[in-house]
Structure prediction request, 324 residues.
Amino acid sequence: MAAAEAAKLAWGETAITEMVIAHSSPAVTVVPFTQKAEPLSGADWVWWWIDGSAAYGMLVQAKRLTVTRKRWGFNFDYRTKGSIRLQREILFEAAATLGVLPVHALYLGTGDYRGWVPCPGKHRKSRCPECMRRTISLMPALLAVDSMVDDAASTYEWSVALEDLWKPPSTGALLVPALERAMSPDLVDFLKERPDGTRAVVRSMVDRVLRARAGQFSGVATRTQRSAVTSHDDLGHVFQDLPADTMHGGVRYLNHVLEPLTYSPPDYVLEVMAGDPDVESLQAQMPKAVGGGGGSWWFRHLAAATATAAFHDRHPVGLLAPPG
Ligand SMILES: [Zn+2]
Prediction:
């Protein structure tokens, strides 16, 4: 991004995404699919975070930051040319089909591009390392609403630096008492402790959603809702019987964020981790109509880290990339 800016070139999401994938090597193996990809998808990547006790998948849509005077914009409500549907709806639908969390990878550009607006870390006036770590930040798509994310403060508050995603949280999640009382003891423990590995990744996401919920004024719905029966159930949800409290749009946000956390990943991910995956068989396992609009949707790239050592280094273990 810095090189492009220095050359006065506007960088695009696709180029940055390809560079991120390329730089993930050798921790991540990329397997390009030969079949022609339909240019129809809500997302750029599928990521799987896996350790010895749990797996968590994300469907990731890249969004570049545009700074106009001091206003920040991402155009989350983007409508694909010729489509009547919002990219956001397609992303949510595809993520639900895959049993993963919809997420935005925010490409924030250099600190210069952002005008070195203070970050929430220990901000330094020149070349702040915390600001630089924020170059790629992840935000649960649930919070990505254009009217709510329109400046530096809101962007930083609802997102986490990709490099910090799997760091154990420094504090417990923000829990309103009514919500805490409706939760199972193991869920409360998870939200108060400092988990590592896959569970730390989940905390990075759920903590931001809970903070957003705590900032809303509507009362907390405390009845619990057993996870819906899906094809992913045989993988075993780590948390069930979640409080049915909702956020904007009526989304049961705890189900939304925590259901993708399972004890083991789906077969197609295991196949990639075993090495030398059969691309055609992998493709056959993908949901056919993911992406909506009646079109098929294929993954163009498929990547995964194979070494167990990668877990301990807190590196991403699985990475899949459908067409950008
Ligand atoms: Zn800073």
